[in-house]
Amino acid sequence: MQPGALAKALKSGAIWGFILLELIFFSVAGEFLSLSDKAFMDWENMLLLLKQSAPIGIIAMGMTIVMVNGNIDLSVGATFAIAAIVLLDSMTWPIFAGLGDWVIPVAWLLALMAGALLGALNGLIVWKTGVDAFIVTLGSMLGYRGIVFMFNGENPTSHLNWTLVDFAEAQFLGLHTATWFLLGVTFAIWFLMTRTVHGRNAYAIGDNREAAVNAGIRVGPHMMVNFAIIGFLAALSAVVFYSESGSVNPNDGQLYELWVITAVVLGGTKITGGAGNVIGTFGGVVAIQLLRKGLGHIGADTSTVNLVIGLILIAVLFLDKQLNVKGKEELKI
Amino acid sequence: MTHPVLRLENIVKTFPGVRALDGVSFSVLPGEVHALMGENGAGKSTLMKVLGGIYQPDSGNILMGEDKAVMSGPLDAKSKGIVFIHQELSLAEELSVAENIYLGELPRKSLGRVDWAKLSEQTNAILEKLNVGFDAKTRVGDLSIANQQMVEIARALTVNAKAVIFDEPTASLTDAEKVVLFDVISDLKNEGVGIIYISHRMEEIFKITDRITVLRDGQYQGTVNTAETDEEAVTQLMIGRKLDLTRNASHHELGDVALEVRGLSCGKLYQDVSFELRRGEVLGFYGLVGAGRTEIAETLFGLRDPSAGQILLDGEEVRIHSPADAIAKGISLVPEDRKGQGLVLEMNCRDNMTLPQVDDLKAGPFVAEGAEVAIFDQYRDQLDIRTPGWKQKAGNLSGGNQQKIVIGKWLSMHPNVLIVDEPTRGIDVGSKSEIHKLLRKLAAQGYAVIVISSEMPEVLHVSDRIIAMYSGRIMRTFTSDEVNEDNLIQAISGLGSNEAA
């Protein structure tokens, strides 16, 4: 075995080991602590878990490619809320009154376009100004959220379309609609990142931007495409979620960016870019949802969940540094 | 005479306030290795950026064969057959060899997919030609520096290269790896490719190049046939005057032992290192990059924990746990990366100089600015630092003056041992000899000085004794009487005798 091979294996499999650990822990602890007598690892419960993972999970796939690129997008939560408003509000617009249920695809299209445009705008600013993505999207996070409040003040925007609700609650081959979207997006981004030239370039840019520039890759436009993708996915996440719920509060989607980033980092993506993959991100998303659900199952309240996830995130990154062979030869600080 | 593959005519490039290139012309013949030399700031990199399409010249022409060429960008230059092997290896470490070689031009199938079969087939064909020991799928981060360089060269071979530019290619290669590189260069040469070879290393220049072009301050100084010139003449062209690089001959009285190291080891980085350093002595450490010299300095300065061995200061064993510890015990380190590790570039000169002791200069809760200025003035005069005033940002000074600020910073702490890692890296030739004189002067004043350097003339010039290292071990310790270029080279290549500790 080569030196570092064990560390490598541990790292790539670590997230799945962690998920297994969670499952065992909550199953056993649930026997003693749970208020319900339903087992934690119940099939229905697991299916529900996947469905509940979808809103964060769909965005996390976009965040993976953006972070592999060496960027970050903090505005996804606000984009999510804007897309939700576009979706629900557009269905009540008088010009679409004659469409009947055909208003649904129109509203979807409008919401998705809004998301892609907002994302592309982030990308354009990063490209043209050269300002760090962290700062640009911090600004747009505030700005986009401002637009949400400008639209309807503190009031929720609501519209329930029963055809849409039926679609959103449907199950196909046992899986919920939202789960299918999550799986579909995961596959699409996996394909994009591992099989296409665009995906390989994303790694190259995140790994060594200068090398990418010298090789003639058009880095600016490339990054803009990825920001458009994550904007589109934030909107898709909203579309899937609000088709079912039918009502959006102006605060919805807040802190989503942090949950998404946590999932991506847990899944093994380097925050400096250049490394990471979609399968790991999927594991990260499931692990977080399991933790939230499991802690709820044994009777812990929401604030405990946040504390535990915060601690685990730091512990995981510390472990990662320890397992890293290079870490040992680093200078002390 | 054959027609040049590449000709530059009267290239002018100005930046705000600087005339970086002032009418530079030179040409490369097919099958020629043409050295481009000059001090830092002479305009070599600007010229190469013009050639690579990163900068557009204000005036002047680039001719390829008989036609005028305009390079609109790196990719355009490459498609015209101009390929760069960069000094800073420009590779994505997480990607495979094949992906790096075809970066920016990965072969595609439908749906924008990468054509992996074609990619590895093309790559392996090129790697076979270079006769290297790794394959297309290897992760670049797992290769040695030399092999990474081979990947860069392989990249050059993917296009029908007319001119290949090597920028300081041997900076981090071992001698054996250099031989392989020179073989590849001579193969390219035989295929009629024109080669531009940028290097500071005279012995290489005289070994492999056919002609030498020298730049100084953005101006063309002339082109000479390598066979008809010598090092001295080329240096004189580079700096515009003669350079004093005589061997260190001053033998003054040495004091007692300030620092002793016994059997010091740090994992795989270096093993079983022992030496003594006396007051008034300059001890040179010479070796290749990766020989463990810098790591020893970092251990003495408390940045690394040794895995075995003892450090004795004035005969007493000490343990150094942190740089703060080292400073308190009188050990100072002038690091190799001046801008990254030695200075706070945005801070003014005075504050940089008093950084380690600002805590001791307090008047009540406030920093005593007067005392700071006094310290700055003292060392500005003593070290002859040329700056308009202490308010000047350190980042605005020349390399030589920056280095003096760092040295002054440590002298103001009155150290027992001063370690200087690569004292003249990135400093122009003129200021170099000033730094050398300064180091000799400090020794004469009774400081115990360690100088780590990758430049042989420098080590020979300033040191009283020289420790030659190879692959983490001390190969031999020379006194200035017994050392010469040949036995020093042998020792750092692992050929010399292993001295008993």
UniProtKB/TrEMBL annotation, chain A:
<keyword id="KW-1133">Transmembrane helix</keyword>
<dbReference type="InterPro" id="IPR001851">
    <property type="entry name" value="ABC_transp_permease"/>
</dbReference>
<feature type="transmembrane region" description="Helical">
    <location>
        <begin position="102"/>
        <end position="121"/>
    </location>
</feature>
<keyword id="KW-0997">Cell inner membrane</keyword>
<keyword id="KW-0812">Transmembrane</keyword>
<keyword id="KW-1003">Cell membrane</keyword>
<feature type="transmembrane region" description="Helical">
    <location>
        <begin position="133"/>
        <end position="152"/>
    </location>
</feature>
<feature type="transmembrane region" description="Helical">
    <location>
        <begin position="75"/>
        <end position="96"/>
    </location>
</feature>
<comment type="function">
    <text>Part of the ABC transporter complex LsrABCD involved in autoinducer 2 (AI-2) import. Probably responsible for the translocation of the substrate across the membrane.</text>
</comment>
<feature type="transmembrane region" description="Helical">
    <location>
        <begin position="298"/>
        <end position="319"/>
    </location>
</feature>
<protein>
    <recommendedName>
        <fullName>Autoinducer 2 import system permease protein LsrD</fullName>
    </recommendedName>
</protein>
<feature type="transmembrane region" description="Helical">
    <location>
        <begin position="12"/>
        <end position="29"/>
    </location>
</feature>
<keyword id="KW-0813">Transport</keyword>
<feature type="transmembrane region" description="Helical">
    <location>
        <begin position="49"/>
        <end position="68"/>
    </location>
</feature>
<dbReference type="Pfam" id="PF02653">
    <property type="entry name" value="BPD_transp_2"/>
</dbReference>
<feature type="transmembrane region" description="Helical">
    <location>
        <begin position="224"/>
        <end position="243"/>
    </location>
</feature>
<keyword id="KW-0472">Membrane</keyword>
<dbReference type="GO" id="GO:0022857">
    <property type="term" value="F:transmembrane transporter activity"/>
</dbReference>
<dbReference type="GO" id="GO:0005886">
    <property type="term" value="C:plasma membrane"/>
</dbReference>
<comment type="subunit">
    <text>The complex is composed of two ATP-binding proteins (LsrA), two transmembrane proteins (LsrC and LsrD) and a solute-binding protein (LsrB).</text>
</comment>
<feature type="transmembrane region" description="Helical">
    <location>
        <begin position="258"/>
        <end position="291"/>
    </location>
</feature>
<feature type="transmembrane region" description="Helical">
    <location>
        <begin position="172"/>
        <end position="193"/>
    </location>
</feature>
TrEMBL record, chain B:
<dbReference type="InterPro" id="IPR017871">
    <property type="entry name" value="ABC_transporter-like_CS"/>
</dbReference>
<dbReference type="GO" id="GO:0005886">
    <property type="term" value="C:plasma membrane"/>
</dbReference>
<keyword id="KW-1003">Cell membrane</keyword>
<keyword id="KW-0762">Sugar transport</keyword>
<dbReference type="InterPro" id="IPR003439">
    <property type="entry name" value="ABC_transporter-like_ATP-bd"/>
</dbReference>
<feature type="domain" description="ABC transporter">
    <location>
        <begin position="252"/>
        <end position="496"/>
    </location>
</feature>
<dbReference type="InterPro" id="IPR027417">
    <property type="entry name" value="P-loop_NTPase"/>
</dbReference>
<dbReference type="Pfam" id="PF00005">
    <property type="entry name" value="ABC_tran"/>
</dbReference>
<dbReference type="InterPro" id="IPR050107">
    <property type="entry name" value="ABC_carbohydrate_import_ATPase"/>
</dbReference>
<keyword id="KW-0677">Repeat</keyword>
<keyword id="KW-0547">Nucleotide-binding</keyword>
<dbReference type="InterPro" id="IPR003593">
    <property type="entry name" value="AAA+_ATPase"/>
</dbReference>
<protein>
    <submittedName>
        <fullName>Ribose transport system ATP-binding protein</fullName>
    </submittedName>
</protein>
<dbReference type="GO" id="GO:0005524">
    <property type="term" value="F:ATP binding"/>
</dbReference>
<keyword id="KW-1278">Translocase</keyword>
<keyword id="KW-0472">Membrane</keyword>
<keyword id="KW-0067">ATP-binding</keyword>
<keyword id="KW-0813">Transport</keyword>
<dbReference type="GO" id="GO:0016887">
    <property type="term" value="F:ATP hydrolysis activity"/>
</dbReference>
<feature type="domain" description="ABC transporter">
    <location>
        <begin position="6"/>
        <end position="242"/>
    </location>
</feature>
